[in-house]
Amino acid sequence: MVSLSDGIVLLGVEDPAGRLDPARVVASGETGPIRPPFSWHRVRTRGGAVLLLIAHAQAPLAAGAVLRLAQDGDGESTTPAATASIAARDGIAALLGTTEPAALLAALRFVSSKALGTLRRADDAGLARHCHRLAAALLDPARAARPVARAGEELVLWSLPDDGPPARRTAPQHTLLGPARLHRAPLAAGRAVLLPARHAATAGTILLPADGGGPVRLLPPPPAPLPSLTDLGRRTEPQARALHADALAALAAGDDAARRLLRDLRLVGGGEPARACAAPEHPFGGALDMAVADGEGGVFLRGWLRDPLGLVAGLTLRGPAGGGDRPLPLDALHRFARPDLTDTYADAPHGGAGREPGFAVHLPDAGGPCTGGQWSLRLRLTTGDTAHLVAPPGPAQPRAARDAVLAAVAPKHLTQALMRGCIAPATGRLHRAAMALRGAPEEVRIGGGGPARPQAALVVPLYRNLRFLRHQYAAFARDPSLRETAELVYVLDSPEQREDVEHMLRGLHAVCGMPLTLVVQAANHGYASACNAGAAAATAPVLALVNSDVVPAARGWLRPLLRELDRLSTGGRPAAVGPKLLFDDGSLQHAGLFFEAGPGGEWYNNHYWKGYPRFHPPAQAARPVPGVTGALLCLRRDAFEALGGVCTDYVVGDYEDSDLCLRLRAAGGEIAYMPEAELYHFERQSIREHGGYARTAACAYNRHLHHARWAPAIEALMARFPDAPSTLAA
Amino acid sequence: MRILHLCHNHPDLQPGGSEVLARGLFRELRDRHGAEGLFLAAVTAAHRQRRPGTLLQAVGGAADEMLVWLGHFDRFALSQPDTYGLAATLAPLVASVDPDIVHFHHLLQFGAEAVDAIRRAAPRARLVFTAHDFFPICPQEGQLLTTDGRLCRGPSPDACRRCFPGKPAEDFVMRDLQMRDVLSDFDRILLPSEFARGRYLAAGYPAERLALMPNGIACDGPAAPRRRPAAPDGRRDRFGFFGHINRFKGGMVLLEASRILSEDGTAHRLTLHGGTAYQPDAFLERFNAALEAAPMARHHGPYTGADLGGLMAEVDWVVVPSVWWENAPLVILEAFRHGRPVICGNAGGMAEMVRDGMDGLHAPIGDPAGLAAVLRRAAERPELWDRLASGILPPKTIAQVAEDHISLYQELLDRSVPGSRAPAEAAVAA
């Protein structure tokens, strides 16, 4: 027995014949079984084997006590095998009774790993001293880990000696033995070990590599500053490049801070230049012009291939985190038209780009949650040669990555198969990641007073376009029926405008005097989040979600909506009501929302009698409708909350309104159109400002998502509204 | 009775018809009817510098007249963006006046925001608006005159878009909705002519709040001799123009008519009285060329109200050749006061004030040859002048106008229950 510290003892039981199985051995003292946690391990020596037991110090394990050993026999009663009387030794070597380095190393590994693991005694100075002393005795003075580069503010990259056995590339568990405590070295791959620089300051720290090999000294960093990891990556010697790649792989497998550092290194280091194969005189060509990690371990790729002669036999893909190449079957690629390439290669000597040179693919499991970094594609040729395509680094932020995926294929070349097979799954994951990064909104109260118990809250998301704000606010403020009953909540979804908007609203409040709450989103999170944040800031029992480009045609518009909502809500039934909305020329923009099957069988949202005269007789009657537009939608707060608010799965803002209506109906609700409330809606005035929406597949993505969720429900619903006109050719 | 009158300019700085009438009315109400309060005129960099630390400044020596500096105005939207200035300066001033009646003579410079601020600062006051022109229903300078110079039969959204081809359609809707909204809080909208009332009615403003309120003039100076002797040859061929020289008042049309008369040998004399301030160089060039081409015409430059009698004594006819509808030009009332028959355009507010063949003659608007024919007839038939001059009825005086206003104010105040202004919720149908 060795007392490693005040609290930990190590016992050795000679078992030359190997009768005791460390997995089944049961030890107990005179007063009963020994108290966990403890751990057994067999160490072979030239003379046989010693069974080691590490445990917390306790009476049955004290010097002089008698230990009974039994073997746990498959469900049978334990049979006593031996008894031993415990005697004190003053070191691990003495306990083992050998100086064989292999045996001592095995004991050292056992003790240090249990101290860091089961026993949780990393900071046990006595235990650490024992381990350190033993490791120092085992050191080969010629072998040492050299500090080679700085990584970030705190880390230093050490290179392990290259004479040992080949180290694993993924997550080797190296241990650091300091004179007074133990550490893990979690950031490691191959020969790279990244450690906080302070370990170098602890003189004599020894690294115990995970895979074979004896302990190595950590050489302290030289007085001159080390090069940065980025500098290392720019060197051309194979060893430096390999070490650099190992270091990046180590960071990629690390914690959030390590991955953040990796992202920063990639952004600052600039990475490898993207490489394409684009010369027209070449017999084949291609590029991997977009590779975007999807935040959940997958990757979205977009590129093109020109292979008029059939030279490309196969593809393999390599990710930034290493982990080897994976084959990418040609028929897994979704192909699409790229008229730009067709033009470029129209006169290429060996043949053009073909009809659909573009490709896109989403690989849901491409290894690791790595952010940023470069992906590359090898084209295997029929000749046995390879061509190497390198993608530019992908966007570092999930929202930018999502928008890149949505812009990857021109909307007119987007097929349902492309959407379903690669755009939608990648977008869904990235959107989720972007939404998960949402910060908390800020609430600014402007003015006091107002109704003590407002009947309704007007919740107005603002995004960039402020053209109507002055008019809309003043129109609300001048309407006595609103001032007496409603509270007003503006939600700014473009926080870069915060100063302007707050200044404008405070000025308007100074002349009009209607109090309001301004909720400022932490970043542009889209319409749904804005509505939800506004609803959370409101107190009234009814919510009216109002677009910022909706302006009343006359005062008193809220009352008929509230009246109809009350009527529909009898008995606690969930309900929603929408008004008549007008285009700027006075024709109908909205008289209720219905669904119609559009091209490709997807359900599209449409409005009744769009463009018809304002007083078109059928649009003059209040009536149930399949849904109402979110441009102005009234519902009770309890119903809104029961539904979980506006669904944030849609990108930027579209289809959330019909989604809300469909969820309301699924919960047994009813929805009505109320023409006594008339407002103008200058449609699409704000979404037009959103670059990520106007020219990308966001709209098609939302429709796809909406269709995938609701197609059967819509079909059943529309069967109940056979009068809905159709404007789309099915 | 406490009154607050608001005017887009002060007549001492810009003596336009509306400004003169507004201040004259305010003083008449004060001096003859015991009303007290403030005449507050807007002013811009065109006439005054803004003073540090305040929007307010004095004008002349009057204790109850002030200026409020309101630049940066949006003339299209009739919107005053300086909401902070309005709230900090105008609101406390209005609250200290504590008016029973707030009377806007124009929304220019003040904007919808000033109405909002004043309504809050004087919540019990009755609101009166005089539409001296068509600004609330016409974004094209409130003249119902198209950008290419044609009379607009509107207002209509499509006509508005033709005047502002680059302007987004929703801007017209926003402007229109806001004007209706703001004016729906006014207890009366006063129109100085039936023509103007008709335009506001056609635009959908509610008839019960649109009231006819004809203009009047101060009659304190001596009138010109009613029976000015004819020239020795018996002709009544001296024509006078009184008004600003700009493209709307029709000075150019009149000069061209004079040129036509000279060319065909019709002897006459044309005198144009009026300044050319703020006119673009291109216009002045054309004006001077037209003057050059009309040998029987002279331009005499600006005049003051005190000069008017003397100047009118020198002419037989007063010509009002405006190329837009006009509303109720004071110069017609002045001409009648001095016994001069008026030759004016045959449409709009001016045609309503001049009875063709009774106290004046109508000529086709914007048509130099047509106007020349009417002038020739007038010059060559002295008996026509005699008949028309004797058909002139005395014009309404500012004193009468003030009495009309005082009874209107009283009626509005009698209706109001203190502390509960009936919100004008009957929305204006757009």
Describe the structure.
The complex is a heterodimer of chains A (730) and B (430). Chain A has 730 residues and is of the alpha+beta class. In chain A, 28% of the residues lie in helices and 27% in strands. Chain A is built from 19 helices and 37 strands. In chain A, strands 25, 26, 27, 28, 29, 30, 31, 32, 35, 36 and 37 form an 11-stranded mixed sheet that branches. In chain A, strands 12-11-15-16-9-10-14-13 form an 8-stranded mixed sheet. A 4-stranded antiparallel sheet of chain A has the order 1-2-6-5. In chain A, helix 2 runs antiparallel to helix 3, helix 9 packs antiparallel against helix 10 and helix 11 runs parallel beside helix 13. The model of chain A has no long low-confidence stretch (mean pLDDT 88). Chain B has 430 residues and is α/β, with parallel strands linked by helices. Chain B folds into 2 domains: 247 residues, Glycogen Phosphorylase B (Rossmann fold, 3-Layer(aba) Sandwich), CATH 3.40.50; 153 residues, Glycogen Phosphorylase B (Rossmann fold, 3-Layer(aba) Sandwich), CATH 3.40.50. Chain B is 37% helix and 15% strand. Chain B contains 14 helices and 14 strands. Chain B has an 8-stranded mixed sheet with strand order 3-4-2-1-5-6-7-8, sandwiched between helices. Chain B has a 6-stranded parallel sheet with strand order 11-10-9-12-13-14, sandwiched between helices. In chain B, helix 7 runs parallel beside helix 8. The longest helix of chain B has 18 residues. Chain B is globular and about 65 Å long. The two termini of chain B are 35 Å apart. The relative contact order of chain B is 0.12. The interface between A and B is medium-sized, with 29 and 33 residues.
